User: Fold this.
Amino acid sequence: MVFVYNQNKRLMRLSILFTSILTVMLISSCGKNLSTNQIQSRLIGTWDMDRVEFKDKGTLIKKDVSGNWNKFRLSFFNDGTLNWIDKSVSDTFPGYWYINEKLEWDANNQQNEVVQQLELYVYSADGVDYRYLLWEELSLTSSRFKAQESSVKGKYYYKLVKN
Assistant:
């Protein structure tokens, strides 16, 4: 009887240990609160636009606008350059990217926290047309990438998947 009790006690300890390890792994792999170096290294590669939503200012409902974005693919390179690829017409627009760090005061923690933004500059081959995007609230894992972009009319919510 004592043997069964000790065995159950060991199983319970192993179960608690396993749950603790699993929780730590999930928290560390969620992709938020990464250092700038971690964001940069995870960003390198090719990403497809998976889902894009837009929320008008003053509303609570996001609209799915993925149809306008699903044709795009982004390739990020170590040297800070990128290719914005329009898969529907097999056209590539060059550009560059940069992770910008800024300090913001966190009233809850009563301290400054580092906030990263991804700046994207994409331009036509002749350099006449260009687009600037400023993505915030970055969340990256090895296969998923989420970001937000504020505009005059509202906010975009991007979800990309690694190709």
